[in-house]
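Quick one, T. Sequence first:
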Amino acid sequence: MWLQQAIRWFLPEEAKFFDFINAASEASHWAAELLQELLKATNRDQRQSLVERIRDAEHDGDKAMKDMADALDQTFVTPFDREDLYTLTNKIESVSDIISATATHISVHQMDSIPDGSRELGELIVKCTQQSRDAARLLNDHGQADKVRAACRSLHYLEHEADIIFRMRLGDLFAREKDAIQLIKHKEFLEGLENTVDQCAMVGNAMEAILIKNG
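Structure tokens:
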């Protein structure tokens, strides 16, 4: 019995690690799609329901992160460097964290309106999480490395596009909004959306680091 346990500890169970990465990326994409719905919602009850569902997606991401950490503690040999696996899962899970925190602004700050540019940024977030999700599914197949790299390049392009939208909409907000409290609420909300796209680009960086080390 002890020998079998020792063998299981030394031999990598590759599938489970990629399962946890995929679970985290699915959670982030689900949160992004719910955020997009939230940005189109027209009444307070509907918004609150969507905020709660986004929290559920965040919890799924948290579980994937915990599962990864536990698996790394219990396995001696891993398919990639254990620090890289942890970092990538953490970066992906952080996307759903930021989405949840940004969505919560709507209920906590009792926002009856969202700032211009929110829906544009929301669409980019969905595209980003879709790219990272699709790339995560290919990460364990060395023959698909070029497709993973292409997805990472797309994430950087989307980050650049989001930066442009954010700067333009923030400038418009400061130029037109006269209510200081409303200005702060809308500014923080736009920053949360922009930070989400930035975090998605960091997911791309983590994937590229794995490809470089294991190419």
